[in-house]
């Protein structure tokens, strides 16, 4: 069961703001922090609690009780120094889980060294996803699992229609696995080998990037 966790989000720009909205939708407890009073007022009615504070001020964070939160997300964008300093303070205070938004590759490297448990780089990740979507018309979604492996969501090509999963033989030929098949409102997770592909089916496939590319060249139109 998923327990109700306490999150704190520092920085209420577009990224931090959308995290607040999404966490509230998931019925989590969210403390929103920003040094800008107007931002805090904007979020006061959206999150559990919103406070004005400069996160580079260790005393202020301690007073808020930041160390008691399960997970703190640092969503300060432009001010890289403030983001780094905030991360160090959170780590020093013993915050259990720290996720930080990186602005660039060097920022990411530093964050990984100084105690961030997870570093996200949304602009880069979205760029990669969009590139995959525009390169291939059949790819609807793309998720990088590692440097070499991905999960892609693609529409079944005309050649696949009428064939069973066994006949497609993605695993033996390309080393790729079909995790699920979406058919209108239904989702077949770990689909049966006998499932026959229909037009407009959407396949969720995991595999090495090169193998997914070969599979796509063969099966997609
Ligand atoms: P996004 O791209 O997500 O919109 P942004 O470009 O607005 O981000 P910034 O303006 O750098 O990113 O920062 C996001 C928020 O973080 C701002 O609302 C800013 O007031 C807040 N912020 C920056 N530094 C601090 C700090 N030291 N303490 C608290 N809040 C901060």
TrEMBL record:
Keyword hit for Cytoplasm: no
InterPro entries, per the entry: NAD(P)-bd_dom_sf, RCK_C, RCK_C_sf, RCK_N, Trk_Ktr_HKT_K-transport
Entry keyword set: Ion channel, Ion transport, Transport
One Pfam entry name: TrkA_N
Domain RCK N-terminal: 4-120
Single Gene Ontology BP annotation: monoatomic ion transmembrane transport
Keyword Transcription: no
Protein name: Potassium channel family protein
